[in-house]
Amino acid sequence: MTLLENLAAGFALVANLESVLALAGGVLIGVIAGAIPGLSATMAVALTLPFTFAMTPIPAILLLLGVYKGGIFGGSIPAILIKTPGTPASSATILDGYPMVKNGHAGKALGMALWASCTADLISNLALILLAGWLAAFALNFGPPEFFTLILFSLTIIAGVSGDSLLKGIVSAILGLLLATIGLDLVYGTNRFTLNDPNLMGGLNFIAVLIGLFAIPEILSMVWNPKPVAGKTQSLGKEWVTLAEYKRCFKTIVRGSFIGVFLGSIPGIGAAPSAFLSYSEARRKSPNKDNFGKGEIEGVAASEAGNNGVAGATLIPLLALGIPGDVITAVIIGAFMVHNLQPGPMMFINNPDIIYGLFMGLMISSIFLFLIGSVAIRAFRHIANVPQVILFPSIMVLCVYGVYAVNNSIFDIGVMFVMGVLGYVMLRKSIPAAPFLIAFILGPLLEDNFRQAMLMSSGSPEVLVRGPITWFFWTLTIITLVAIIRSGMKKRQAHITDSSNPV
Amino acid sequence: MLKNSYFISGLVALLLSLLLIFVAIPFGITSPSNISKIVLSPVFWPQVLSVLLGITGIALMVSANGVKVDGVDDNDDNEDLKESTAGGFKRLFLMGILMSAYVIAIPKLGLVWTSMIAFVALSVLIKSSRPRTAIITAIVIPLILYLFFAHVAGMSIPQGEFLRLP
Questions:
Q1: ipTM of this predicted complex?
Q2: DSSP string covering A205-216
Q3: CA distance A244 to A2
Q4: Could you say which DSSP state residue B67 is in?
Q5: How far is CA A277 from CA A265, A327, A480, A489, B15, in A?
Q6: Is CB count within 10 Å lower at the N or C end of chain B?
Q7: Which residues of A touch B91 (CB under 8 A)?
């Protein structure tokens, strides 16, 4: 099929009421969830997932993508108005957003956040459309050894950058890989850690593990320390962002968007580092650099462009290679799996209409984000007033219903709670949960590709370095490891120096 | 303490690795006896991961020695937090009981009624200052979810042995 034919087929899938409503509803849910302190975009996407089981694939995935995009923007609203980031990605927005509120320019800060978010979102979506197909075409040359080295590289980078310590990240990833071995063996069909329980023979349910790891620990944190959000909502003021201000910040927004696209397309980096890098670059290059941190509108534009620029780009490795770039795309891969779709290069061959339908839906989502975001800014006072004592029990009940709905299994609810306790212990010990989850998802793929490669070579490990692609990924893995270890050693040295020379 | 966080995580990883290598893998994985290449065996992958886990655990324990103890826990650097979490362990213990009871009670009471009770129990546990709102929400949310999953998504929701919903 030609590009035009693919676009037409994709358009036919999206141009219906169900898809449009799913997208608009998703953005609305995402903005509301992102704006509620205590709910994150990840949790919102995870909790929405069970509601998509009864839907057809395109509206289901569009709903989740809408929640993702809305959630990332929604997080900036409390970051600006009450100095409490709704999502970690919005942390950089506080730096200039809250001082602007203090100066009486809340409306301007929120307006610029919205405009920058929508612009970056659009650029990110375009990057996805341009790059994903090209990368998928390249990935068609991959065999099991190439996929094995690619997944290993992805896991290395995710383990390395997700937390403060590479070693803790590796422990987390290995635990995820070990958990993925539960069930029947991929080749021989023999039992692995199943304890002869039929519930375990198909492996642990991905959604139970996911919701357990990312929603239940938040509830347990609230139980540990029941404390309401301390921030106080500020008035929006009468000033709104002007076209002249948008034009002044446009270069910064575009730069931040490209930073977001670049970092978002690398598995594991995520939106928060992108927002901070975009902010620091804007401060370095701005003529108003002295005003940064005191309420500079360009600072808000930079950080919001940085974190929203990631949103479309994280779908590049997901759609082109079948590798989730972060936790949210790991949830979205779950939606694909529920609907019997396997993201990756073959999807561009077998289901191009779905791929192009998603691309079109993503472009439309930028428009919905602008429209719904404008309303959400004004309605924030009501959204933020949801009492925590109602919110967290509601989340628990939603989690239970959602997990039960996957397989009609009470066992899965038990798995979710056990994973929740594990996730909470990991949270307390600063062991990142993202490598665990992504390793759990990629574990069967990693092992399967490894064993296929071994079958191809009759057990010779030389097949894992058989050509330039495998060498490329091994080199990237080693470079990543060296860079992360060096950075960790530098941090430790600085920590020891600071401790031994107190001011 | 920061040092302890690394040391304890490493120790747990090492112990888990030993448990896997000497107990869980030999007794928990069935491997056919006619496998010619060890790399193709069902036990190979878990064994490799277990060894890696042990090595990483040792590395974590060693790295804990290099970190200067600053007396501040990774997550407990807030004095207010320490004061306000005095009853934290007790509440977490009760939450553990609540989660276990939730799972056990579903076949008997049904998902909807169990969820209502669990909702109220969690509201009490997190010190709800709005008991009336909590009770109303505890009734409304599980019912709405029941309506959606049972009547819109067409799923079978456990009804329990006592009171069945339409």
A1: 0.89
A2: -HHHHHHHHHTH
A3: 41
A4: S
A5: 15, 20, 19, 21, 40
A6: C
A7: 223-224, 226
